[in-house]
Fold this protein.
Amino acid sequence: MGATYPDWATINARHVAAHRAQAVKAARAAAAAAAPFGVRVIVFGSLATGRFHRRSDLDLALEGPAEVLFPAAGAVFGAAAGEGFEPDIVWLGSAPPRLQQRIRETGRDPAELD
């Protein structure tokens, strides 16, 4: 009798779960890298809203003192990239008002992601 293989839905679900776990790990690494600068990382987009899929990226908003924008963003990017994700980073204070509102309504702390 031949081997049985999982169907596409099962394979896709496994891939999405692994991809999501890696994104959560990257978001937490980014938050740890931002902390010494007094900057808070907020996850928004599909990872925060539960619509994460196999091609999702990692959207991060940073909130903190403007004078540390560039070094904090560099540290955040490096930490997340080290975990396999090159994040899209937004400085919350300079984001368009509608995006700020969306981030404040749906954003999540990386430590709270399951």
Observations:
- The mean pLDDT is 95.
